[in-house]
Amino acid sequence: MPQHIPHIEDSIKQMGHELGFDAVRIARAHLSDETGERLDQFVELERHGDMGWMAARRDERRHPRGLWADARSIIMVAMNYGPDEDPLTILNRPNEGAISVYAKGRDYHDVLKKRLKQFARRLIDTHGGALKVFVDTAPVMEKPLAQRAGIGWQGKHTNVVSTDHGSWLFLGSIFTTLDLVADIPETDHCGSCQACLDICPTKAFPAPYQLDARKCISYLTIEHKGHIPPAYRKAIGNRIYGCDDCLAVCPWNKFAHAAKEAKLKARDALNAPSLRELSELDDTSFRAFFSGSPVKRTGRDRFIRNVMIAIGNSGNGEFHDAIKPRLADPSPLVRVAAVWAAKQLFSKETFSVLSQTALLSEKDAHVRAEWTSGISGTTPG
Ligand code: SF4
């Protein structure tokens, strides 16, 4: 048996707090069979949608030691990023785009990783051992590990909730070869509350504690590479990157605080960006506008696809001139969404005239289907 060094855990936690982490807790490098079974069910029901890595890396995910055989303990860290204002009020301003709270500042992956690496250096200098750091890395099941470490519990919305920090938490982990004493896992404090389930615009929760990612607006607007399925377009409203609804209504948020880290605070330009201005971004201006932001991860075409859906939902006829150039956009992803927006905002006659011209030269099967279904009033297949 390796010898346990007294108080090493306290020293590690103090180190983490000094570096700005709001919670630092320890778990053994192990997950329960039940966690693995939940992952199996999620993948077998294909609720992961396009996120093929979830199925492909299932074995690494279910066992932390499948990722790194030498890991003995996992130091889980969390940073609070509570919004300065209610993130749901923008949903009533249809000419502006709603960007998820976590994506309005600098990319948290970069910020947390840098901080975790500092933490790792200090750990090695003080306590030795080998380690690896992870922030939102595909094979690490951060949420169940955070629950095992006692940071919070996985709420009915499947995200981590804490009695100290609410539902706004960035998570990261340090896998280490050190044998550390684990903290007590957190228990569920959701009680009878189901505000997060009730508010979901796309009914993405088949049951409490289960998410069908394929229906979730965060997935549809960020991860999903294809066309947004017609069934969810209206429910998306003006959400152009992610969705905060289920997190924002969590009553435990009364204990959340804003990000202390200046880099994680919302950039003014991303608080309520004009849909019209966003619709004009080309690849170069998109990269420049979202430099350092996680939004740039979708690439310009997926993002403008989302902007077109939001414009279609605006009910504002003044967006006609923002839609028209996108009907001829080089990306079919954008053209499909622009045709849908035109169908929502243009008169039947104008839509029909535009479709006749477009169909003379349109080669893409999906775009053609969007035009023809728009004329007939059916749903594209
Ligand atoms: Fe539903 Fe939005 Fe939560 Fe996704 S993020 S589950 S769409 S409320």
What does this structure look like?
The protein is of the alpha+beta class and 381 residues long. It contains 18 helices and eight strands. The chain has helices at residues 8-18, 33-44, 52-56, 58-62, 64-67, 108-127, 142-149, 195-199, 217-223, 230-236, 245-248, 275-279, 283-289, 299-312, 320-327, 332-345, 348-361, 365-376, and strands at 23-28, 73-80, 98-99, 131-134, 153-154, 160-161, 169-176, 239-241. It has a four-stranded antiparallel sheet, sandwiched between helices. The protein has a two-stranded parallel sheet with strand order 3-8. The chain has a two-stranded antiparallel sheet with strand order 5-6. It is elongated, with a radius of gyration of 23 Å.
How is this structure best summarized?
The protein is an alpha+beta fold. Helix content is 43%, strand content 9%. The strands form 3 sheets. Strands 1-2-7-4 form a 4-stranded antiparallel β-sheet, with helices on both faces. Strands 3-8 form a two-stranded parallel sheet.
| Bound ligand species | iron/sulfur cluster
Query: What integer is the average pLDDT?
Result: 94
**Strand-and-helix sequence, N→C?**
HEHHHHEEHEHEEEHHHEHHHHHHHH
Q: Could you list the spans in which at least 5 consecutive residues all have pLDDT below 50?
A: none
Strand content: 5-15%
Class based on secondary structure composition and strand pairing: alpha+beta
Instruction: Give the count of structural domains.
Output: 2
Radius of gyration: 23 Å
Q: What is the spatial order of strands in the main beta sheet?
A: 1-2-7-4
The major pleated sheet works out as: 4 strands, antiparallel
Q: Total helix count? A: 18
The gross shape turns out to be elongated
Oligomer kind: single chain
